[in-house]
Write the structure tokens for this entry.
Amino acid sequence: MAIPIDLRTLIDSRMVENNRVEYKEGWNPEAILHSICAFANDYDNVYGGYIVLGVKDDNGMPSKDSPGIPAEDVDRINKDLLNLVNRIEPKYEVDSSYEEYNGIGMFIIWAPGGHDRPYKCPIGIGKKDKGMGFYIRKQSSTVRANPSQEKNLFRISDSIMFDDRPNYTASIEDLDLGLIREYLANIGSRKSLEQVPKKTLEEICFDLRIVTGPTEFRKPLNVGLLFFTPKPSEFIRCAYVEVVTFPDVTGSSMISKRFDGPLDQQIKGCVAYIESSIIQKRTDKVPSKVESKSFYNYPLEALEEVIVNAVLHKDYMIPEPVTVHIYNDRIEVMNIPGPLDSIPDSEVRNGTMRSTSYRNRRIGDFLERLDLAE
């Protein structure tokens, strides 16, 4: 299948090697196996990552003199990859694709975060048996987990996040093929778009990993319903953004507007509404100068960032919408229940919040591909 991301975001200098991307000049089975296992374990809950073969790493950036992968080697690499992945326990699968970019052939392995983590794999290949080990990503490196990290890996693997769970009140037919097409076009996945007419809705949904279950009982995942249904709140209560304007302190004449489409459309609609209805520009002439100075009552980029984060980090198991309250002197954006419990109150007060995990890793993955989140 085609990798569900625009190849340019993996190869161009807009994305350096980080905890989601790793570049390899050629086929190195042991290192690749460990990296696949690390992406499968998804220690930071960022939904796995990508290994790009044929690209030389130049201080974390793709080098311009990368060797590439010859097309005649692809069949052999695919067979080796299958044998390699079969060494991972429990059973795990990856997707791969051969692409040509700027005249260079590249073999890309997509290793999403696994449902059955934690995963382990052989510590050595073709050597004396060294047993099995757990591997994780730390920043841009693959490392073997130490005892403390192993314990934490088991802890975070005990529960599946809400956005990655099946929704038993919905069916695959509730997923909108038109919205899926629009999404593939927006992320620049040309090959995936070309395959849409050749595949069933179920096959397309499996490619995007938004359905799960045995053949006789397929069910969409919550993340699929949040992005690919016209009205997600029909399946997930209060999965919408509500904007309320309070023209006066009494609240007697407040104006309410609700944005209830797919999550990316909720964000764009909400931001566009605030830009057209709330953002105001003032231009002042400067004495003795031709130029004038312009001021805005609110920075649109900052508001967009806040709204994206409110949608991304909301707990969708709690039936409360993301709310944007607009007063004469301020705008308040709220999601429920706020920051993760693991973030100390002192960091919230100081504005120095740090977290190594996400409440909704799949939602973040889709928003990132749409260039709405980083």
Q: What stands out?
A: DSSP finds twelve helices and 18 strands in the chain.
